[in-house]
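Hi team,

As requested, here is the filled-out complex form for the iron/sulfur cluster run. I kept the field names the same as last time so the parser does not choke. Let me know if anything looks off before we queue the next batch.

— J.
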Amino acid sequence: MYIYNKCDQKIIDERVAQFRDQTQRYLNGQLSEQEFLPLRLQNGLYIQRHAPMLRVAIPYGLLNSTQLRMLGTIAQKYDKNYGHFSTRQNIQFNWPKLEQVPNILADLATVQMHAIQTSGNCIRNVTTDEFAGVTPDEIEDPRPYCEIIRQWSTFHPEFAYLPRKFKIAVNGHASTDRAAVKVHDIGLNLVRNEQGEVGFEVLVGGGLGRTPLIGQTVRVFLPKSDLLSYLEAILRVYNRYGRRDNKYKARIKILVKAMGIEAFREKVEQQWRDFKNSNKRLTPETIEHMQAFFNTTQYENIDDTKQQAEDKALATQKENHAGFTHWLKTNTHPHKTPGYHCVILSLKMTGHAPGDISGDHMLAVADLADQYSLGEIRVSHRQNLVLAHVRTLHLFEVWEKLKALGFATANIGRLTDMICCPGGDFCALANAKSIPVAEDIQRHFDKLDYLHDLGPIDLNISGCMNACGHHHVGNIGILGVDKKGREYYQILLAGSSYQDANIGKILGPSFERNEVVDVIDKIIKLYVQLRVADESFAEVLLRIGIEPFREAIYKSNDEK
Amino acid sequence: MMKNNPKAMQTNLIKDHTIVQDHWITLTADNPIHQADQKHIIVPLDLWKAQKSELIQSEKTLGLLIPNTTELTEVADAFTVVKLIAIDFPVFTDGRGYSLARIIREAGYKQELRAVGDILKDQLFYLSRSGFNAFELRSDQNIEIAIKGLSDFSISYQ
Ligand code: SF4
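And here is what came back:
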């Protein structure tokens, strides 16, 4: 992974000093609330329902064990011993004290971490596929480009006061998208053109929130060397022409929609032509230099005999342990190196807020990473953790250890692997609670055999229309709404965040909290009834639409 | 030197990393060109557009005050005439002035580029990196403290 050089370190150290001074001036009354606001936001600090919330950046979701240990220690020392992994591959601490935040940032800086630009109207943490660099089907490892973008966007002087926040995601595949690039302000797909060169397809104007929109292609093929110049051109057009009169209409998606993709493209390309021969171009050396950081060379060479022996042992373990077999099926992902696997730690165990993890457990996972996964941990946008380099021969051991920690629920990609925002329990903007709804659903659907039989289903919950829980792009989406001061829940169906990205449709009038599980149950039962052979939930919806579901839910309700 | 000059103490201008006296005056409706006794005058964009030739022929040294929504085509012909361009920041959170500054610098303008309006210490570093070399701070700002904002960081990525 990327290692800071002296300059990187100096920059974040100076940032800590700067924020210490700003916090001091605010506490002394020299900075007004209003003037302090954007400054603290650019350091990831929100004022929440109960206390400040500090969001720490995990660039493209990649951590080493030392960093995870530091996060765990911070949770223990400054918080109530836990942290929350967000859908943007970051971590949030819900209970820090404002006057301690400069100290937390100083601690983070010792392990090359920070909270820079994790909030505020600036370029946020760039995100990617949690299996980047190891999944067999990628065109190239997207992480070197993520790091290039991270450095370029960090303290970019021109783009610190954009009309609104700005999110960039990079995906390394042509056909699979685990980074949800189509619902980002800018989405980048690594692609190969007819000449066989690798570059980027550039999408723009996707996003969720109040006006959910799917991103559109602004450029079919962008040479790698032009990555930053093109991003800069898009950002400049947005910074100059994006709306600033209404914060709900200020995202780039609104600008792209208002101008039309053609006119938007024309403006960007015009700006880009002026940049093209400037020093903004990336040289092959810069790219290679960055790629070198991500080339893992520590893999053991597994010959055929060894591999066969390990596979045989694995087969026996599977035979003897049905739970292990289930777990292997859902909670592992192939690795491009023979003898290695990615293991997904489910942070979605029943009775636990999705994405939450205690400081003690962070330390335990860091130890597992050292022992079994080259000291590296990843955070997925579906709020789980990944040990990306686990040897075949260790899988069983890892499973047992994860079981002991509570992270071995075999539900990845299944109904109970929900994305869920902090909602009304923590967030001041919420219309309704989301965590208790997630819990109700988990309790109802906790039979593993049944979950596995249902196949892949994404269920996403947001506590309000800001959509931090990505409810629009879940196969099932749940949205907290406020009806005359009471918590209600709207259900959406047929969303997707993958290569076939789609905004879900609202099923109909909203429900009270105690009705939600029942509604989900009916939807699922109807799916089971209607599926043909091994058709997935998403495929059934694609084939028959949401109408039969609507009928089933509201007709039976009328009869009540 | 500053200490012996009480007038200089009241300045709110930083130029080229130094606290300096402002010898420019901005034209307004109350203070039109024929009344301005100062040699250095800053002309708002509208006035510049309306009275370009008259202004050029006057004996004054000219500066231009532009809103942050200005297009390059509106000001490009002024680059060789004016000695100062001031970009207005209506509120410090409105970042359009940063892009406009870069556009103007990229187009080859080399004279004074001044940020005026809602200018605070915490934005000086980014402003200077976007091409501004002069900052007219909001009147309540302590300029001695503010100038330190220019050296918040010793290195940059871009
Ligand atoms: S979706 Fe709404 S309730 Fe949930 S975290 Fe975002 S703002 Fe808060």
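Two things worth flagging: The longest helix of chain B spans residues 96-106. The CA atoms of residues 22 and 98 of chain B lie 22 Å apart.

Thanks,
J.
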